[in-house]
Predict the 3D structure of the following.
Amino acid sequence: MATLGDIGVSALINILSAFAFLLAFALLRIQPINDRVYFPKWYINGGRTSPRRGGNFVAKFVNLNFKTYLTFLNWMPQALKMSESELINHAGLDSAVFLRIYTLGLKIFVPITVVALLILISVNVSSATLFFLRKELVVSDIDKLSISNVRPESLRFFVHIGLEYLFTIWICYMLYKEYDNVATMRLHFLASQRRRAEQFTVVVRNVPQIPGHSISDSLDHFFKTNHPDHYLCHQAVYNANKFAKLVRKRDRLQNWLDYNQLKFDRHPEKRPTKKTGFLGLWGERVDSVDFYKQQIKEIDKKMALERQEVLKDPKSILPVAFVSFKSRWGAAVCAQTQQSKNPTLWLTNWAPEPRDVYWRNLAIPFVSLTIRKQLISLSVFALVFFYMIPIAFVQSLANLEGLERVAPFLRPVIELKFIKSFLQGFLPGLALKFFLYILPTILMIMSKIEGHIALSTLERRASTKYYYFMLVNVFLGSIVTGTAFEQLHSFFHQSPTQIPRTIGVSIPMKATFFITYIMVDGWAGIASEILRLKPLVIFHLKNMFLVKTERDRERAMDPGSVDYPETLPSLQLYFLLGIVYAVVTPILLPFILVFFAFAYLVYRHQVSLFTMLLYLYACCKVFW
């Protein structure tokens, strides 16, 4: 079990790691070679030009203005300058509400932390119950600050109960105020926006095939009959996969043409050439510019023919369509009511905005959707169950004393001071972070298999799965398996009737593991977020091997967005830890406060300074 010294070692390692990430970011962002990575939105909006143009060769890669190195931390105050209204106009309502989650955490936990530390710490420390249980249980000095140190049936528990009610009332009040503000912001935002097509449109799936009638005729007849006063028009969805392949091929050819044309413009005395064989390794050598122009002409003809074939072939029309109405009320009635006696036909939902549509899932039959959802539910359950194995391994690292009593031969290695501090104070949180790294990707794939038709819905479903996983495995699983590893010796040498008491005393002690996890994930992890190491490496690899034209370079500097399916469940876990341990082990609260404050500063910078959060879609806070 981690001691105060182990927590100190972990804090030192994570603070140094966070400082190293921040220092690396501050230095890398002012280098000309990284300008497109840290300011992509400025380039996309046309508000910034490359600093690599002009100057000597070295200045294209390294910032030679040494004055900028003296002010390399000026991004911190700059991140806080923009007001919330300006932030909404600049980055959208979703970004503003995302940041409000962090400020809500501070509003909730700052008063709770002050009260808990001033009152509960003194109440817990003065009880000294664990002093008499140290021979039965594995305890540490930090556990004396928890509720486990209070004697059974002590009147001191009334202090904890009273503060628990007080904290609950405060949290409910702050949530009520925040939801009221968010709802008001959403109404003002929607009222200020121009009308959009998706507000009047419904997506209709499982359209039945009527003999002698096309899908379009069936749609037109059905909605003119059932919604005569509000129906406006419809757009059927076509299976144009072959046409899409031709479009992608044309884009590649156009890119090669632009590249060779650029080479010729730079060196007009020498026309670029290529071989027509496989990968340009053999075959007749021809003029590259003329070759790609001819290839584009030929593929344009193929695209025109394929387009006509798709429009003429009734089999290419899928049993799904977008139906538009004359009023939003008519669209709402259609989207929220059953359209047929057969509940598997004429399925209606609000249409996502065009950027939000996940086209691959539009035409999945109803029966297939039901089977997919059942299979994914079973798969998620199995995944949660089998992930208990790595969770148990992580807890074995966090509870070395319990292992020492059961396996004494490990003691000589474990008792080395630095190794023990590293294993108990830093490695458990890092190991848990490692095991959780690939999980959001797996859950997103599962959500796609379920058959949802909107990217925002996919992210919400993946986020829900991830939160349940965090609740069951990370929170409850860590508590149960951690308690088992801590008290193995007690479980083996006491009456079964005493096991619930042992578990009850030990659960508050698991705060030490969650403290190490918060420092790894919420301190060093958030600091690594601002560095954008993954986009940085990918951009330079693409720029080195794949970029041929300016369009390629724009694609390579894709700013991406906040990973909602991972970020929001993690945020919910921090709120859960703070609420649960506020009375049980209040020493955990300052670590959560540092996370909320630091994460707000980092993400405020990412939003306000144009470096991130270019969303694929705008859900107008429906996500929240």
